[in-house]
Design brief:
By secondary structure, this protein is α/β, with parallel strands linked by helices. It is 38% helix and 19% strand. The chain has one domain (3-236): NAD(P)-binding Rossmann-like Domain (Rossmann fold), CATH 3.40.50.720. The chain has helices spanning 3-8, 10-13, 19-27, 40-50, 83-94, 109-117, 129-142, 171-174, 186-189, 193-212; strands at residues 30-34, 54-58, 99-103, 121-124, 145-152, 155-162, 221-226, 231-236.
């Protein structure tokens, strides 16, 4: 690190278990974020600010005015622009040292498989079950850690599935691949704006834990947050011997 980077990341370097070697690991790391909406916005912003060296951002959608209530990486001047490109512009302002690769088309399974193979950690910030299972299958195939989050209405959840650990559950152990698709999206059900920031920030935190210490205490566990009642709960996720993805 140069002197400017030592100053920029000095509050990380002061942390126990972090120091300069930890920050160097972040600078050399590559993270894939699928979805740059309500969750992907805080994830990408905090990872870039924290010093992640490379981010690959996937989103085929465009910025809409209704997104700006919670997707703070986008701006009104960029309404109509692809979200991955919009996020790339904002990250350039947050931390020019972070190299961003935008993927602006809908990714098929083969491309997703290739993208996952190139990175250190995968963040699922998508908003549909089909994409979540495709991401999970690629992480199982490549034995990559997956940080998953959802936020809808007043309720959010975050879970980690570290597929480097053979005893770890995968996302399909938690939500089987034959689960009926629910049409419960923020476009029809609404979502509390700060809820996405809470869950997205926690996803970024778990990414840093995985990169710095090599593990997450949230592995094979889901945290549920009810923003209306200000209540947190935690549930273990068991590895399923009948799982169609990782068994």
């Amino acid at each position: 690190m140069n002197d400017q980077q030592l100053l920029r990341y000095s509050r990380h370097i002061l942390l126990e278990g972090f120091d300069t070697s930890g920050q160097e690991r972040l600078l050399q790391s590559h993270v894939l974020v699928v979805g740059v909406g309500g969750l992907g916005s805080p994830v990408a912003s905090y990872l870039a600010a924290s010093g992640i060296g490379r981010l690959t951002l996937c989103d085929f959608d465009t910025v809409e005015l209704s997104n700006l209530q919670r997707q703070m990486i986008h701006r009104e001047s960029r309404v109509g622009m692809n979200k991955a490109l919009s996020a790339q512009i904002e990250i350039g302002l947050i931390n020019p040292d972070c190299q961003v690769t935008p993927v602006t088309s809908r990714i098929e399974d083969s491309q997703l498989h290739e993208l996952v193979g190139r990175v250190d950690v995968v963040v699922d910030a998508s908003d549909n079950l089909q994409t979540r299972h495709a991401i999970n299958r690629a992480c199982v195939a490549w034995a990559k850690p997956l940080v998953s989050g959802t936020a809808i209405n007043y309720v959010g959840q975050i879970a980690v599935f570290d597929m480097r650990d053979r005893s770890s559950a995968c996302y399909a152990c938690f939500v089987p691949q034959d689960t009926p698709v629910m049409q419960d999206q923020c476009s029809t059900s609404g979502v509390l704006a700060p809820l996405t920031g809470t869950i997205g920030s926690m996803q970024a935190t778990e990414v840093l834990h995985l990169l710095i210490s090599g593990r997450s205490h949230l592995n094979s566990r889901v945290l549920l947050y009810d923003a209306r009642d200000a209540e947190w709960s935690s549930l273990p996720i068991s590895k399923s011997s009948q799982c169609t993805a990782c068994a």
